[in-house]
Amino acid sequence: MYSKLMMRNILMGAVVVGAGFGSVKAAELPNIIFIFADDMGVGDVSHRTGKADTPALDRMAREGMRFTDAHTTSSVCTPSRYGLLTGRYNWRTRLQKGVFFSPHDKPLIKKDESTVASILKDKGYDTACVGKWHLGIGWEFKEKNNPKSRTGYDIDFAKPAVTPTSHGFDYFYGIQASLDMAPYVYIENERATAEGSVTKGFPRKGAAAPDFEANQCLKVFAEKSVAYINQKAKSEKPFFLYLPLTSPHTPIVPSKEWLGKSPIGKYGDFLMETDWVVGQVLEALDANKITENTLVMFSTDNGCSPAAGIGKLVEKGHKPNGDLRGHKADIYEGGHRVPTLAMWPKVVTAGTETKRLTTLADFYATCAEIVGAELGSEDGVDSVSFLPTLKDASQVDRGAIVMHSINGSFAIRQGRWKLCFCGGSGGWSAPRKAPEGAPKWQLFDLDADPGEKVNVYESQPEVVQGLHDLMVQYIEDGRSTEGKKVQNDVEVEFLNRSVAEGKKKK
């Protein structure tokens, strides 16, 4: 019985026929904007329980749709961004755990690998990325460089680099990674706008441009985004703007204008400034009279980080991750269930909510279906379009999704059941590993126990076996959607063995 359920839930997601949008003219295609915050939880928005005002996000919830069961593919930065843009789980790549820290980290997206930007560009879109990339910049280095260096002093800033413009984006203006990862320089297209000739940074010091200030990044990204919208609104071509922000990730550095604006401290101030950027985008759409046929999505790359001081925020009545267990880096829901909003007045009914189980990797197939793109067999292998849900919030069909923690632990979710292939958080919250005498894995019934307090692993052996087998199938097939088997980039390590070889790890 369970195998039939498994097979029924392996949904078509790799080949898109573009029903309803397949042959429309370019002028009728929607503009698409995806705003991606950094380290922000489901409770950080004021239309939920947040104590810092987020009027722009509240507007999106009021005039659009809330996804109440949406998840990043990973509970940390780099891998979740890869999943969003490629429709493919990061653990199929060389990035099996952790994030990129060093300027020597080579681009994770392979040359010629399909991205949301590339499929939209092929359909006539102008494409731009403004903000934090964190998927590897292909810098050129000086002759004497240290491949383990994280400071950026050995970068040859005079030479062009491999940037988002190599992955489907016509234009890029942003930074390599987080505001605590050198080099601290802006990059425009393939070149730094200034050399990293001075030392700045907190807590990690490194090469920086003399005029680079971390607390000005949100302003710069807002200005660049508004300028891009104003310019492209005059064109007959639709546009795609990917706007990955640096906030409210550490360092928590709201600009002077936002200091003291919230009742919960600097983290709240940073949340409010993050929301302000969203407001700037929405106002630019309104001013150009293109709001009606623009799909604006907002989400975040993982849940709130403990670096925000979660305990003190809760004491002030603000629960960044709501009542979910865990936080950034964890396999628990607080690590990867994130606030997700979609506003598209022409299509989305205002003030709606959907319970569709969603991974942000689904954004890839959604864009492909909107524009009627036919994908290759190796494209978007873990992505299932939610366009039907945007049209009707009750359309919630979606098969199992997979989540990944910072230490490489897996979890698979199907319907009410979530199986964590680890005995602890797999991240930063306690217990990180299974306590002595506890089951090796954790099974939660999220309908009955959304806070993941009761492990029912031992009482549901059939569910455990079925989800385990489905996880192995997803690894072996190189995909979690219907289609021919494809190769993962590397052998995937799962439960201390290589699934591809089926041999015990020596």
From TrEMBL:
Q: Tell me the ranges covered by the Sulfatase N-terminal domain, including all copies.
A: 30-372
Keyword Calcium listed? The answer is: yes
PROSITE patterns hit by this protein: SULFATASE_1, SULFATASE_2
Q: Which domain of life is it from?
A: Bacteria
Pfam families linked to this entry: Sulfatase
* Keywords annotated in UniProt: Calcium, Hydrolase, Metal-binding
Q: Which family does it belong to?
A: Belongs to the sulfatase family.
The name this protein carries in UniProt is: Arylsulfatase
Instruction: Tell me the organism's taxonomic lineage.
Output: Bacteria, Pseudomonadati, Verrucomicrobiota, Verrucomicrobiia, Verrucomicrobiales
